[in-house]
């Protein structure tokens, strides 16, 4: 399988985790397609995607198109491909492009489809109404792409039960990324050989995720503590959970960096007040007084 010409489409951290699993099995892609550099951080420094950084480190050529339909990109991409792999790319890819490879296009999705279709399956899984501290079932799906979002036939699935739910967002991303990568490298040879018959999803059981925004992480300290704790876990990397409070006569945004849930109570441990460094929540409260 090392002679397969594979183009990998991805942008986020979970994409890199899947790529690492491919490399372990000698399935190094011939090309990476990722999002172009974006402004990030307080200084709004133009920064390449994590996948572009990974590709450079592994000496793999990378394309960063602003427009997938552009003649320049399509010429650079070419048509001599055995397989496309998509894992959290972040853009809609035209059907004409998806059909280019000899063996089509496989997508790695971090949920058990048809559950949690859409762009935020990891955060949405954490936000679901599930008991704190109890086991929770989730998993990954390898699927074909069609005209609708996460609607295509299932090629492979792997379920996993996670104890002490919920995991933090980054932890769940690592767990499902690794699980998806391992499942992918097992699936590719079977798929290319024609040994797998895709299975249609049960569309009547489909659920859908919402697009997360910078305001999605807002919590209210007098709200349901379980729901607020799940928010803190879900948004531990972006957009970060935060609450608003009045300090010195002005509304202040306070980011929650660490919290725990004990005996039905949400306990805040560490916070970053607007314009300040990270501190213990108790120190923040003393300063506010």
Automatic annotation (TrEMBL):
Transmembrane segments: none annotated. One of its GO terms (cellular component) is cytosol. One of its GO terms (molecular function) is methionyl-tRNA formyltransferase activity. Its EC number is 2.1.2.9. It comes from the Bacteria. CDD domains: FMT_core_Met-tRNA-FMT_N. Residues 6-188 form the Formyl transferase N-terminal domain. Pfam families: Formyl_trans_N. InterPro entries: Formyl_transf_N, Formyl_transf_N_sf, Formyl_transferase-like_C_sf, Met-tRNA-FMT_N. This is methionyl-tRNA formyltransferase. It comes from Candidatus Yonathbacteria bacterium RIFCSPHIGHO2_02_FULL_44_14. The lineage of its organism: Bacteria, Candidatus Yonathiibacteriota.
């Amino acid at each position: 399988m090392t002679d397969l010409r594979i183009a990998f489409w991805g942008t986020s951290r979970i994409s890199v985790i899947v790529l690492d699993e491919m490399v372990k099995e000698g399935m190094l892609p011939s090309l990476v397609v990722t999002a172009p550099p974006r402004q990030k951080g307080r200084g709004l420094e133009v920064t390449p995607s994590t996948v572009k950084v990974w590709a450079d480190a592994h000496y793999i050529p990378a394309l960063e198109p602003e427009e997938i339909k552009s003649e320049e990109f399509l010429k650079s991409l070419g048509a001599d491909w055995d397989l496309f792999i998509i894992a959290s790319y972040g853009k809609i890819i035209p059907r004409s492009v998806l059909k280019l490879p000899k063996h089509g296009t496989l997508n790695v999705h971090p949920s058990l489809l048809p559950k949690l279709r859409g762009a935020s399956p990891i955060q949405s899984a954490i936000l679901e109404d599930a008991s704190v501290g109890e086991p929770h079932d989730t998993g990954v799906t390898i699927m074909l792409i069609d005209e609708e979002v996460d609607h295509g036939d299932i090629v492979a699935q792997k379920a996993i039960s996670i104890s002490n739910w919920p995991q933090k967002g980054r932890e769940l991303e690592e767990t499902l990324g690794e699980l998806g990568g391992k499942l992918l490298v097992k699936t590719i040879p079977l798929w290319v050989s024609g040994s797998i018959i895709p299975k249609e999803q049960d569309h009547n059981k489909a659920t859908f995720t919402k697009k997360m925004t910078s305001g999605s992480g807002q919590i209210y300290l007098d709200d349901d503590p379980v729901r607020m704790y799940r928010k803190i876990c879900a948004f531990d990397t972006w957009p970060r959970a935060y609450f608003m409070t009045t300090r010195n006569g002005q509304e202040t945004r306070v980011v929650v960096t660490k919290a725990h849930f004990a005996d039905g109570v949400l306990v805040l441990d560490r916070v970053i007040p607007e314009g300040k460094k990270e501190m213990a929540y108790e120190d923040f409260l003393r300063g506010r007084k």
